[in-house]
Amino acid sequence: MTVARVTEISATSDKSFEDAVNQGIDRASKTLRGVTGAWIKEQKVTVSGGSIASYQVNMMVSFVLDD
C-alpha cells in the first residue's frame, strides 16, 4: 500500500508563473523525497510602477511517504 502526503508551498519568480512553478518543484524535490505531483492552488502578481514585478504561485505538492 502506498501512502502520500500533501504540503502547500509558495514560490516566486520575476520571470513568469511557469518559472515560479519550476523553482518551487525544484526546491521541494531537494527537501522532500518521492515528489509525485503538484497542483496550482493560487497565482498572484505583484505590481510596481504599472508593471508586473513578480509572479507568485501557491501549490499543493504531493509526495509518497517512506515505509
TrEMBL record:
It comes from the Bacteria. It holds the Pfam family Dodecin. InterPro entries: Dodecin, Dodecin-like, Dodecin-like_sf. Gene3D superfamilies: Flavin-binding protein dodecin. This is Dodecin family protein. The lineage of its organism: Bacteria, Pseudomonadati, Pseudomonadota, Alphaproteobacteria, Rhodobacterales.
